[in-house]
């Protein structure tokens, strides 16, 4: 099996731009989306989005999550306050999200490593090194402080 995966933390709003989110937080994003920049009606993307991403290959999902949490944890309370404001401005919850995206059989993904821990030993197929992940207490506290939802999307390529 081939696996491609990445993780991002995002703040989204229909009314507040990613540039304004950057200005309010004082933290530069890795990526942004501008509401309606691809299609005007209905607007696609549906909201402005400020994102901190980890696309580093070879890391498990929890390692990717930890890279993001390490970057943002000291700002978590301020992010949570802004998320609450964005929810109020847009009139609905969901401004803050920690997103996991996994695509199976993606041609640009990582092959399963069947080499065992010792020379001459092999793992059984289906034990991909990127399978399995967990969320520890620090990540749960980050989600609480930032008012973030955890969303996991998994797709089969093609």
Your description of this structure?
The protein has 158 residues and is α+β, with helices and mostly antiparallel strands. It contains 4 helices and 6 strands. The chain has helices spanning 18-25, 61-72, 76-90, 137-146; strands spanning 2-13, 31-33, 48-54, 96-104, 110-111, 149-156. Strands 1, 2, 3, 4, 5 and 6 form a 6-stranded mixed β-sheet that branches. Helix 3 (76-90) packs across helix 4 (137-146). The chain is globular. The two termini are 14 Å apart.
What portion of residues is helical?
25-40%
What distance lies between the first and last C-alpha atoms, to the nearest angstrom?
14 Å
Q: Which term fits the overall shape?
A: globular
Overall pLDDT: 90
**Sheet having the most strands:** 6 strands, mixed
Q: Radius of gyration over alpha carbons?
A: 18 Å
Number of helices: 4
Order of helices and strands: EHEEHHEEHE
Q: What fraction strand? A: 25-35%
Poorly predicted spans: none
Structural class of the secondary elements? alpha+beta
Count of strand segments = 6
In short:
This protein has 158 residues and is of the alpha+beta class. The protein contains four helices and six strands, in the order E-H-E-E-H-H-E-E-H-E.
Topology record:
Layout: E1 2-13, H1 18-25, E2 31-33, E3 48-54, H2 61-72, H3 76-90, E4 96-104, E5 110-111, H4 137-146, E6 149-156
Parallel strand pairs: 4-6
Antiparallel strand pairs: 1-3, 1-4, 1-5, 2-3
Helix pairs in contact: 3-4
